Amino acid sequence: MIDHLYSDFLKDPKQYSLSEDYWQRLWQNISYQDRSRYGWQQPWFQPLPRELGQGNPIFSAFSPLLRRGIRVIQHEPTCQTMEIQAWPDSFGGPITNPESIKELVIACALSDLAGGVVMEMMQRWVANRSISFRTPLVGTVPFPVRLGEPKCRPKYAMMQDYDAAQLEPTR
Fold this sequence. Notes:
Elements: H1 13-28, H2 32-37, H3 50-53, E1 59-63, E2 68-74, E3 84-91, E4 101-108, H4 112-126, E5 152-159, E6 162-169
């Protein structure tokens, strides 16, 4: 079962603050070497007050060197399963414009599983690696429950035209 975190964050200022803190801690778990090497700055967008921002973005970061950005949109849970979507976008012009910023947009209801998926996507994006936007088979991605637990590394295997992941703890 999914453990949603801070599910009333839009109604409760304390939970909103805890959600912002969660995303900050997740960012600190992304490779410091990659964040430094590519000059990542956080925040990219100045956070709006809870009443105006409504979780969009709850987190943002930007690398002027890579011309890449990250925007996380957090929404309240609507069901008892993992809710996460991610897509590429551009900021400051069409994606074909070399001056535009290539943006990774992630929208999710924060949960133990969603946090792990987001962390994996961010790590790849921050390190200037590509991301697959294929949908994994439901229930095949058991990511870490809480920040601070041993990190897991996915092993990818193709299965019916999907990227399926099985995890093993990093030693």
